[in-house]
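Here is one chain, start to finish.
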Amino acid sequence: MLKLFIGNKNYSSWSMRPWVLLRQAGIEFEEVMVRFDSFKPDSDFKRMLADVNPVGKVPVLLVDNQAIWDTLAIAEFVAEAWPEKQLWPQDRWARARARSVCAEMHSGFVGLRSACPMNIEALLPEVGALAWRDKPALRADLARLIAMWSELLQTYQGPMLFGAFSIADAYFAPVCMRIVTYNLPVPAHIGAYVERVRSLPGVQAWITGALAEKDFLDFEEPYRLRP
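Its structure:
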């Protein structure tokens, strides 16, 4: 069986992507949660991952004791191993576009990710309003997301970005969480897509797990003193 190492569900956006992908696709796996205590070299988190991932980060997928530790690499492996799940679009050009937008998320949107770190348990509209006012990089990133999602939803006629659920929707699921947590301003059709993603069974299962953790980590939440 596959074994997926993840961090705290409330905070770990990178862990959320492959977990949701596997769960939504109906692929069985064993979850191993490695709690964030800190990211220093001598932290319990780093020690627990030392023999699993050479870079000491999550997520990590173990397959027959072989480690895959990048989210895009995990997604590609899963798509290749279970082609019947059709996790990439079947049309070659749609597939190329899906890979492109996932790669853009993988390496970009730093303004959004830094100003609005994932925090599923919280509702932080005041923090979001201040970030929106003061962070032009956040406004630019959200404008890009709105343009991207609008074009894809129109081109492929929804309900997901490429019609049916795909790796792209799993990849942007943490962004949907951020939009809700920080009450970021999006048009109605984008808000409707966000709610469709949040309603996916795989995403609902992740949210339920995140809410059950009740593990407040102050270094993940510099903007508030307590939950």
